Amino acid sequence: MVNERLVAVGVPVPGLGRLTYRVPEGLPMPPKGARVSVPLSGRMVIGCVIEPHAQALESGKYRDVAEVVDTESYLPEQVVDLALWVADYYVAGPGDALAMALPPMARRGGKTAFRTMKVVSLIPAVAGTEPPTPKGGRQQEALTLLAPTPDGVSTDVLKKHGVSVPTLRSLERLGLVQFRDEVVERDPFQGAADGGSTPWTLGAGRHEGRDLTPEQALAYRHLEEAAIIGLYRTILLQGVTGSGKTELYLRLAALMLERGRRVLVLVPEIALTPAVAGLFRARFGRRVTIQHSGLSDGERHDQWHRIRRGEVDIVVGTRSAVFAPLADIGLIIVDEEHDSAYKQEEAPRYQGRDVAVVRGRREGAVVVLGSATPSLESAANAQAGRYGHLTLTQRVMDRPLADVRVVDMRKEFAAEGADVMISRDLWAALEARLSKGEQSLILLNRRGFATVVFCRQCAATLECPHCSVTLTFHRTARRMRCHYCNYASAIPKVCGTCGGEFLEQSGFGTERIEAEVRSRFPSARVVRVDRDTIRRRGAIAKILADVARGDVDILVGTQMIAKGHDFPSVTLVGVISADVGLGMADFRAAERTFQLLTQVVGRAGRGEVAGEALIQTLYPDHYSVRSASAQDYAAFLDHEMEFRTRMDYPPRVGLINVIVRGKSLSQALEHAQVLAGLVRRQGPKARILGPAPAPLSKIKDEYRAQFFLKGTHRRAMREAIVRALDSKPDLKRRTMIDVDPYSVM
Ligand code: ADP
Ligand code: ZN
After folding, report:
1. Which residue CA neighbors atom 9 of ligand 1 most closely?
2. When you count CB atoms within 10 A of the terminal residue's CB, does the N or C end of the chain come out lower?
């Protein structure tokens, strides 16, 4: 029975389901999407109303809502519904999903998180009356300053010009000026005067006024048609790197705005937002904003409210921006849709691209998924006709694709010894670019200096005390670090196992490559880009600007540099170990390798000079290496789809990973057995694989066992798990569910 004074509330506490509270008489009834303060196990938490008139519980006992924070909905209804869809599909608590949708400060329930400033403006003289005369020179000066700006000037600015607040207050008493409070928006674009050549706007304007290539024009006609029909449609825009997809996004966005609808643009990484947002800002001005977790809480909050108030037409952001409170969305662009960064690796474990498609369907929007190397999931949807499919096969201006050479490192080791990192061919190619004054980029998808430290006497490796992985040596920081839990320690003097004094390092990461390159070319300007060097806010933007200005000769980095950035004058790309991921127990390894190689090869030769790429590998014949070097997506897709089908992997079937944690591995396995048995009893019409120890069997002092559900009845699979967990609350607390997993380690 529905009760008029009951509300269902989602609270941001991991794993909690919907909670029902009573709104006491005297408090207003909060609508869906409003925040409320509610008691929960002895404290007050901020929750969000997900259902205004909830079903009565069997027990008939309810606690009272303590405070109704908002009397109007704070989150738009459709965003609440989207979050509930996410909670349901990804088997998470509704509060976890709602937490994604709320700006950080709102989770703390703050009502007045805005900063305000005092603005002073002249009061226009009324005709026929004699305005009072100001007294001193100070007052006269203030009036002169205010005269040209009818909108007013902030007291801070006036103070800088020597006009104090008391002076202004005297003018107020004379009826000559008025004060008002104005909300100060913390602007993430601050410091980027529109059109200036700061990192935000680098490259902006380069598109302006250009005709589309015939291929672009053809693709655009289809996109335009979908936009004009104005109904839901997802279109996969497959275009090689440099084929001008971004230009199509911009034009389609302009068309949508003309039609009075709004635009959401998703990019996979925070580091990519400045460049993309800068392009949109250069075309569309102040009605563009950004949303991602790299903004300060204040900036994020202020921009969120601008969006909520309808002051923004285009939002550019990372995956969580899919929950932006933007109304009347007509177009959602997911750039680099294949990128695994769209998958969130903590609860709710959602895939931002897939949620974008769901949002597009609910709001009748056109969804464009752009990529040079579409995910197998999107390719399968296009093949099945669920998505439209447009292709751009050529680079604009007929710039040729890079010339790719594969270097067989087995031969290199035989000739030069097994500790070679950079092959003779790559050294020669780097030297040639340096002498011509051209830029090179070296990719290695591993950071740090040495990846293993071991004892020469007993061969023991130094492992993280909390995780089942070896520690990576970082030379600059002079510490060994765990890349899973960030544990760090100095290198010990002696081996902890046998007391031996000879600790050696092997394996290498970007830091080591940087050192090698510097010692070979001491006068070259070398810059490294990885998570260790770009911790500081704004660091990446500065590096990109340096590269664009030609102040860098060689850029060494992890996959961060492979993604999306446009470096027009890079003419050589070297890939150190193309196969880091291959051979791991990960069914997406070949796809990841292919995507990374294609992306990085695409970085070479985007300007006037033709590019070259060298791929060093131990598996020159692997199909992902071969088709990436031939830039042949179709060949890769055929091979990979055949593999996924034969092995019964996604996108052929749905996959759910269930991970159970324990104090010991045997305990974790035991619990996983119990849970798997309970799931099986629910008859989920799916195969259950495992349980087995997870490939990374210990992370942060917790042991992990896992099993998989594989099948085509996704709903039945999810429901079986939910019912099994609901019958065992103690197991539920130890279990992580990953629907459509990316990392299965
Ligand atoms: P993609 O997003 O497909 O990798 P971009 O949109 O970044 O490609 O385009 C690659 C380069 O070509 C950019 O420098 C862009 O300014 C330029 N470009 C795009 N479309 C055109 C066009 N029609 N004519 C000339 N240059 C273009
Ligand atoms: Zn660790």
Report:
1. 244
2. N
Ligand 1 mean position, distance from CA 444 (Å): 27
Could you identify the atom of ligand 1 that is nearest to the CA of residue 239? 3
Q: Tell me: the pLDDT tens digits for 649-704?
A: 999 999 999 999 999 999 999 999 999 999 999 887 889 998 999 888 888 999 99
Closest CA to 624 of 659, 597, 664: 597
Asked whether 598 lines ligand 1 (CB < 6 A), one says no
| 397 close to ligand 1 (CB < 6 Angstrom) | yes
Kindly give the distance from the C-alpha atom of residue 274 to the centroid of ligand 1, in angstroms, as a whole number. 17
Q: What is the pTM of this model?
A: 0.83
Does position 113 have pLDDT exceeding 60, yes or no?
no
Neighbour order of strands in the sheet with 654-662 = 687-699, 702-711, 654-662, 735-739
What residues contact 745, with CB distance under 8 A and at least 6 apart? 584, 585, 586, 694, 695, 696
- CA 212 to ligand 1 center in whole angstroms: 9
Atom from ligand 1 closest to the CA of residue 211: 23
CB of 245 within 6 A of ligand 1: the answer is yes
Residue 56 has what DSSP assignment?
P
Instruction: For residue 568, say if its preceding peptide bond is cis, omega within 30 degrees of 0.
Output: no
R_g (Cα) of the chain, nearest Å: 29
Start-end of H helices in 285-423: 297-308, 352-363, 376-383, 409-416
Closest ligand relative to 463 C-alpha: 2
Only one residue has tokens 């949807």, namely 381
3-state secondary structure at position 627: helix
Is 246 touching ligand 1 by the criterion CB < 6 Å?
yes
CB 359 within 8 A of CB 332: yes
Non-local CB neighbours of 477 within 8 Å, separated by 6+ positions = 488, 532
| C-alpha 372 – ligand 2 centre gap (Å) | 35
Say whether pLDDT at 706 is over 80: yes
* CA–CA distances in Å: residue 681 to residues 48, 354, 519, 632, 720: 35, 30, 63, 46, 8
CA 689–ligand 2 middle distance (angstroms): 27
Contacts of residue 143, defined as CB under 8 A and 6 or more positions apart, other chains included, come to 122, 134, 171, 176, 177
Q: Which of 210, 283, 396 should be mutated for ligand 1, with most atoms under 8 A from CB?
A: 396
Do 263 and 333 meet the contact criterion of CB atoms below 8 Å apart?
Answer: yes
With a 6 Å cutoff on the Cβ, whether 206 touches ligand 1 is yes
**Quick one: average pLDDT of 104-113?**
57
pLDDT of 65: 95
For ligand 1, what atom is nearest to the CA of residue 206? Answer: 16
| CA distances to 12, 204, 284, 286 from 315, in Å | 25, 17, 11, 11
pLDDT bucket at 9, cuts 50 / 70 / 90: very high
Q: Is 194 close to ligand 1, i.e. is its CB under 6 Å away?
A: no
Please name which of 92, 106, 97, 91 lies closest in space to residue 50, comparing C-alpha atoms: 97
Mean of pLDDT over the chain: 87
Determine which of 142-146, 167-171, 295-299 has the lowest per-residue pLDDT on average: 295-299
497-521: pLDDT as tens digits: 888 888 888 888 999 999 999 999 9
pLDDT tens, position by position, 128-143: 677 777 778 888 888 8
Please report, for residues 156, 163, 173, 706, the alpha-carbon distance to residue 177 in angstroms, rounded to integers and kept in the order given. 16, 13, 8, 70
Q: What's the CA gap between 699 and 379, in Å, rounded?
A: 34
